[in-house]
Amino acid sequence: MALTSSQHAVSRRRADPRSLRRKPVTLFVAALAVAGVATLVIAMWLGGNLSQASVDGLLIGGTSSFTTWGLQASKLVMEVSSVGVIGMLLTRLLLPDQDGKPSPTARRCLRTASQLAVVWAISTFALFLFNWSDMAGMPVTDLPITKLFTDIGDTFPGVADFVSSTAVAVMIAVGLAVTDTRLGAMVLLPLALYNLVPMALQGHASHGTVLKYSLLVHVIVVSLWVGGLAALLMHVRKEPAMLAVAVPRFSTVALGCYVLIAASGITASWYLLGSLPTLWGSRYGVLVMLKGAALIALGVFGWWHRQHTVSRIRTGEDGRARRAFIQLAAAEVFIMVIAIALAVTLSRTASPDTIVLHGNL
């Protein structure tokens, strides 16, 4: 029986390998989004940032609640998109060129990085507006945008950080749109890492140097590790020859990142908590323990990778090892997104030292 033109079109779509590749990626990204939002809501509740008024405001509408939820959501999007940009740039550097030119896989990484850089810029500016709304005590729609470059600094001292971070994200997006070379990635990756600094130090101006440097190290190495693994999973998982080169290189980077993450995280947590009883006796401490549990789980996954999959992937011929890597990497990225959502909530949760400080004023 002859097929109609519409049936031919359907069969072509089903047979299109690009659509087959996109479907699991789309489902996985959707699952990550659900996990991130769910973790954010639960963590807000555990951290005492989720009042009944916030819930009611979300359901029936409310200005203050819109700002509260907008703050958390825009910060989560900003964190994830910045991590994605950095990971894509790192992966571009890990991938070998073909005949002196970027491989199609490398170009896909940079294309995704360019798109994520636009999201980074938009979400950073949105975060700025929600922070301004929060500090000014007025709806986002009533903010005097005309004062953005005049006297806003008197009421919102951090405006310069938000504006500069948004501008740098735009610069990165433009740079990624005009270059696909290794040199371009080598220039843009440090710029992207530098752009993490203003937002990482938001709200910590009064804290000591040790905490500031711990937070900076923590944010930078998390971005390299999480973003790099996500990029490998998204764009390199179906390329055995590329995986054989990129995974061993990334494994070395990931090991160093894990050590630095653990050291900087412990240092920052101890600085803010001050004692073990505070760890399990405060809302902030509960969130820190949950994030620590995620770090331990990721360490177990990383150990398994190095022991059982990395060396076998290096040959480029072991399909079973490649599938194991993809499955473990997917689980790691899932846990990493949960950890990022916890970190977002921690940044808006009063630490015990802050509570003591305000209690003594």
UniProtKB/TrEMBL annotation:
<keyword id="KW-1133">Transmembrane helix</keyword>
<feature type="transmembrane region" description="Helical">
    <location>
        <begin position="246"/>
        <end position="272"/>
    </location>
</feature>
<feature type="transmembrane region" description="Helical">
    <location>
        <begin position="25"/>
        <end position="46"/>
    </location>
</feature>
<dbReference type="GO" id="GO:0005886">
    <property type="term" value="C:plasma membrane"/>
</dbReference>
<dbReference type="InterPro" id="IPR032694">
    <property type="entry name" value="CopC/D"/>
</dbReference>
<dbReference type="InterPro" id="IPR008457">
    <property type="entry name" value="Cu-R_CopD_dom"/>
</dbReference>
<feature type="transmembrane region" description="Helical">
    <location>
        <begin position="284"/>
        <end position="304"/>
    </location>
</feature>
<feature type="transmembrane region" description="Helical">
    <location>
        <begin position="325"/>
        <end position="346"/>
    </location>
</feature>
<feature type="transmembrane region" description="Helical">
    <location>
        <begin position="183"/>
        <end position="201"/>
    </location>
</feature>
<keyword id="KW-1003">Cell membrane</keyword>
<protein>
    <recommendedName>
        <fullName>Copper resistance protein D domain-containing protein</fullName>
    </recommendedName>
</protein>
<feature type="transmembrane region" description="Helical">
    <location>
        <begin position="116"/>
        <end position="135"/>
    </location>
</feature>
<dbReference type="GO" id="GO:0006825">
    <property type="term" value="P:copper ion transport"/>
</dbReference>
<feature type="transmembrane region" description="Helical">
    <location>
        <begin position="76"/>
        <end position="95"/>
    </location>
</feature>
<feature type="domain" description="Copper resistance protein D">
    <location>
        <begin position="246"/>
        <end position="346"/>
    </location>
</feature>
<feature type="transmembrane region" description="Helical">
    <location>
        <begin position="155"/>
        <end position="176"/>
    </location>
</feature>
<feature type="transmembrane region" description="Helical">
    <location>
        <begin position="213"/>
        <end position="234"/>
    </location>
</feature>
<keyword id="KW-0812">Transmembrane</keyword>
<dbReference type="Pfam" id="PF05425">
    <property type="entry name" value="CopD"/>
</dbReference>
<keyword id="KW-0472">Membrane</keyword>
